[in-house]
Specification:
single chain, 406 residues, Rossmann fold, 13 helices
């Protein structure tokens, strides 16, 4: 019922957004006498902010057409290497560039599309042959394809690495740090030749007991049955995944925005003032962020509920009790993979120490294969996007991969 009510409200807001956009365009048209009034800039700016905030959004494009390497513009094309029901392995092929380390960027399956890591991909493409896990919106996956849980996520990562072949590196951003770590441990135990040479984890809840954040509190203050009864909904009939149980993306977005509602209101007020002042460049920067931030997708209920249970409530990985298809995941099996743990000093999603715990769990890994970076004055989003990512964090990742490349 909630999903249907949301879709009805979304259709109304889409119409209102279109009306506000048309009204704003007419109000600033030189042929309209009102465009010369003192109130016109404020009215146009207000309509612009409303139109942007209420518009419907689908899956964004990465939008890469070229990348600058050694001072030269190199054309970039996207290529699907492997397709699976709940996600695909995408490669950013750069014309004429060969011999650079292969890097699998593991995007979160947390309500946003992989394009949230556009800044991560853009920076790493300079020195690496970049692949990414391009997860699919669960409401678009027919129920005949079955479910998708944490075991499936781990299997997908192993399949992607095997498709890429030996010598690849893996970088997990936020939530996938746990399945990426588990996949690495399993592949090491099997002496799989396609196990990653290095694993970089950025702001991930490897051990969510360390420095709990508001996200951790929400996940632990209620029993698992509460989440199943209150946030899991059925995909409506007008989507390919009709009948599938999901955690809707709009609920995820509502929760994240509610955590920092004051900041979001300030951002939109600032965008309004920039528009009134004619500073469209600053306003466009805010628009670009929210264009991506508000583009959300649904998660399969199995994966969402199992993540709540395994990662945030029972902490099975750090306790040495995580199982994968009846087999124990042993962090001690990781003996030759270089692990880099990166945390943000101001991260309000994964607290300090949660990602670093992965270094301690790999008890058989020599110190030369372990590295920790605490990025000062950086929040969760800033770990993988923005100036500090490009100038301070990414160079550390580059050097770590280069040190262990083979």
């Amino acid at each position: 019922m909630l999903y249907d009510a949301y879709e009805f409200q979304r259709s109304l807001m889409s119409a209102a957004s279109a009306w506000a956009d048309l009204s704003g365009q007419w109000l600033k048209n030189p042929l309209n006498p009102m465009s010369y009034s003192n109130m016109a800039p404020m009215m146009v700016s207000g309509l612009d902010v409303f139109a942007h905030a209420s518009a419907s959004r689908g899956k964004p494009d990465f939008g890469f057409t070229e990348v600058e390497i050694d001072g030269e513009k190199v054309p970039v094309t996207e290529e699907i290497i492997l397709r699976k029901p709940f996600g695909q392995l995408k490669r950013f092929r750069r014309r004429g560039v060969t011999g650079q380390p292969k890097l699998l960027i593991v995007a979160p399956m947390s309500g946003h599309y992989a394009t949230l890591l556009r800044g991560t991909v853009g920076r790493m493409m300079i020195d690496h042959d970049v692949y990414i896990t391009d997860w699919r919106d669960a409401k678009l996956v027919p129920v005949e394809e079955g479910g998708f849980d944490l075991d499936d996520y781990i299997d997908y990562l192993i399949a992607f690495l095997e498709k890429m072949g030996p010598g690849a590196h893996m970088l997990a951003v936020c939530q996938p740090s746990v399945p990426a770590y588990a996949a690495t441990a399993l592949m090491c135990a099997d002496q799989n030749p396609c196990r990653p040479v290095t694993l970089t984890m950025m702001g991930g809840p490897v051990d969510a007991r360390e420095a709990p954040t508001a996200v951790n509190t929400v996940a632990t203050q209620r029993p698992l049955t509460w989440f199943e009864q209150n946030v899991i909904h059925t995909v409506p009939v007008y989507y390919p995944g009709s009948g599938r149980k999901v955690y809707p993306g709009f609920l995820q977005l509502t929760g994240f925005m509610a955590m920092n509602l004051g900041n979001h209101l300030v951002s939109h007020w600032s965008m309004f003032k920039h528009l009134v002042d004619g500073d469209e460049e600053s306003a466009d920067a805010t628009k670009a962020f929210y264009e991506e931030y508000r583009s959300v997708c649904d998660m399969a209920c199995e994966f969402y509920l199992e993540t709540i249970d395994v990662v945030f409530q029972r902490h099975l990985l750090p306790k040495g009790e995580l199982m994968h298809r009846g087999r124990k995941v042993d962090p001690a099996a990781i003996a030759d993979v270089g692990i880099l743990a990166i945390e943000g000093e101001r991260d309000d999603i994964s607290g300090l120490g949660q990602t670093r715990a992965g270094l301690t769990l790999a008890s058989k890994l020599p110190d030369s294969h372990k590295k920790y970076l605490m990025a000062e004055h950086v929040g969760h989003y800033g770990i993988f996007n923005g100036r500090r990512w490009r100038e301070e964090i990414a160079p550390v990742v580059d050097a770590w991969i280069a040190t262990h490349a083979r």
